[in-house]
Q: What sequence folds into this?
């Protein structure tokens, strides 16, 4: 993370009081649950990942989208095929839907249903919309604490969609960044992730967090990456947390982008196109414009900052952004952005050249464009910095817009709130809080746009309790922040039942089980990583057989915490071919699959 917020932490101790990333037994073989995203007025992406019985063959997966949670009034359905080439993820662009409508959806494979998901389409571009609400989140470090903010949002059930502004995962090794000794959460794989298999494993573990699953299951997400989906302080051609000994940056970047598009419900512009800048229209009220300030066009931080041609977005994305702003017919133009846009200085010196402060010429160009072209109600949403801020975006004597910065889900801020000191030198900062974790509720209507900051009470225990802290708003046409002591309130339009926890045909959650989630890589040359989840303490035995039933390898894994885990086994002595792998726990539960040895 940036030098402004970089802190030292003690290494974790074994103090595992509760579990949070062991998937529910009732969801097998859909251990990663379901998700939806990128809602348009007539379609939405629906997503799942199926865990096959045999990792050497494709799996057919059917899907259905209905108007009711009982899945009786089906609107669209079909079948797709998934396999190891996409890590058995499934992504469907469900079309033919009605605008501004709630839908339920589910998948079926290997004789079982997935959990049902709930999603919502966007309004028609030509429709008149009275009000909208969005949840805004970023920066979820799994080792830093429980995702209580995700659970708190799922329980609110009072917004259109989740806007994830980046750092959905973190790339660090176990204990490498802000571990919390009070929780049972460890990065898998335990080393810094570099390869496609590494990134897939990290997403797999994240997607088994039960709070994250619930929020994905019930709301569409609009996601962009920041730096930690690839590596800390990344840019187009490299990253601070990447060195020559870790291989070619282009290979790592491609692996990170590939896994992001596999594991998140984002709509690709075309096959193998990893551009994430795109627009979502919400009637006449909001145009949501999402940009990529990391991997598309950004030049290296701290180099030639006075160069007027220096770019954060790249020339093509910058031109696209200006065009979208200029042609927008919506009342509010909301820019979903990763890093702080407004200037922040100490003694006249910018303090974070990883933010827009490191790219002042391009920022000034955009501010001038907004003012000269009378782009009203320009609003920037930001993540990245793990803390809460609100800015007036001033361009000389003109107010160009406002900016709201969401706190982190778990990643650390500062130990004390030094915000008032920053405001003395930076009077355009209208709010800053540097210690707490949580989320923003963005509430928009024809009179004003308002940001409500909510903070969770703890990261050290599974506890979704939270409290309102601050609300600031800007009146239509003014672009000048004011404070209110009244947080926004949702309309009854959001009062729709959440999706059921377990799939159809299940009888509830069992007390103990064992699930074999994945084998990486497959095919394998030398070292096979077995990815599994369990609900019992004790030893686990991994056995490898040939297809004649002869046992060839036998290893015991001594495990302590209850969560998902990996076990690496050496298969270099095996001949090329297909093999059977059995995983057995101390209660006698068995999970099996097949893999290919090259």
A:
């Amino acid at each position: 993370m940036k030098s402004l917020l970089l802190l030292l932490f003690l290494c974790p101790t074994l103090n595992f009081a509760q579990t949070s990333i062991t998937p529910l037994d009732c969801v097998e073989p859909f251990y990663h649950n379901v998700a939806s995203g990128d809602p348009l007025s007539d379609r939405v992406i629906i997503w799942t990942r199926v865990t096959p019985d045999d990792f050497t063959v494709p799996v057919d997966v059917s899907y259905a989208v209905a108007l009711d949670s009982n899945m009786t009034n089906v609107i669209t359905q079909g079948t797709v095929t998934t396999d190891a080439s996409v890590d058995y993820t499934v992504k469907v662009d469900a079309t033919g839907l009605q605008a501004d409508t709630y839908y339920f959806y589910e998948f079926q494979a290997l004789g079982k249903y997935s959990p049902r998901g709930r999603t919502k389409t966007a309004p028609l571009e030509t429709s008149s919309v009275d009000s909208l609400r969005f949840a805004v989140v970023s920066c979820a470090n799994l080792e830093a604490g429980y995702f209580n903010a995700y659970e708190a949002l799922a329980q609110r059930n009072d917004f259109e969609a989740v806007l994830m502004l980046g750092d959905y995962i973190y790339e660090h090794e176990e204990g490498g960044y802000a571990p919390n000794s009070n929780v049972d959460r460890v990065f898998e794989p335990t080393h810094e992730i570099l390869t496609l298999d590494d990134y897939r494993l990290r997403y797999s573990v994240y997607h088994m967090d039960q709070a994250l699953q619930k929020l994905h299951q019930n709301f569409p997400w609009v996601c962009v990456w920041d730096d930690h989906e690839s590596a800390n302080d990344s840019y187009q051609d490299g990253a601070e947390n990447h060195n020559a000994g870790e291989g070619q940056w282009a290979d790592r970047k491609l692996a990170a982008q590939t896994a992001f598009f596999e594991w998140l419900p984002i709509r690709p512009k075309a096959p193998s196109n990893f551009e994430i800048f795109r627009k979502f229209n919400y009637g006449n009220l909001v145009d949501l414009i999402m940009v990529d300030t990391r991997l598309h066009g950004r030049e290296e931080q701290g180099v030639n900052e006075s160069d007027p041609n220096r770019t954060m977005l790249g020339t093509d994305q910058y031109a696209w952004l200006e065009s979208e702003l200029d042609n927008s017919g919506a009342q509010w133009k909301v820019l979903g952005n990763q890093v702080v846009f407004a200037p922040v200085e100490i003694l006249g010196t910018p303090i974070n050249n990883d933010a827009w402060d490191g790219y002042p010429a391009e920022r000034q160009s955009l501010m001038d464009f907004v003012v000269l072209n009378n782009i009203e109600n320009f609003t920037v949403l930001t993540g990245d910095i793990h803390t809460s801020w609100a800015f007036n975006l001033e361009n000389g004597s003109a107010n160009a817009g406002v900016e709201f910065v969401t706190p982190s889900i778990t990643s650390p801020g500062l130990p004390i709130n030094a915000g008032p000191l920053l405001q003395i030198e930076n009077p355009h900062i209208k709010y800053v809080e540097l210690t707490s974790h949580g989320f923003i509720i963005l509430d928009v209507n024809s009179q004003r746009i308002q940001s409500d900051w909510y903070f969770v009470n703890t990261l050290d225990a599974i506890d979704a309790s939270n409290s309102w802290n601050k609300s600031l708003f800007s009146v239509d046409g003014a672009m000048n922040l004011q404070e209110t002591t009244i947080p926004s309130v949702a309309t009854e339009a959001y009062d729709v039942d959440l999706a059921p926890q377990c799939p159809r045909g299940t009888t509830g959650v069992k007390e103990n089980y064992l699930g074999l989630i994945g084998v990486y890589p497959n095919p394998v040359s030398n070292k096979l990583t077995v990815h599994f989840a369990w609900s019992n303490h004790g030893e686990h035995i991994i056995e490898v057989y040939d297809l004649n039933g002869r046992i060839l390898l036998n290893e015991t894994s001594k495990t302590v915490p209850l969560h998902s885990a990996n076990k690496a086994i050496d298969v270099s002595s095996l001949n090329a071919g297909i093999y059977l792998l059995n995983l057995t726990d101390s209660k006698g539960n068995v999970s099996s699959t097949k893999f290919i040895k090259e």
Summary: The mean pLDDT is 93. The chain has two domains: 120-494, 514-597. The longest strand covers residues 466-475. DSSP finds seven helices and 33 strands in the chain.
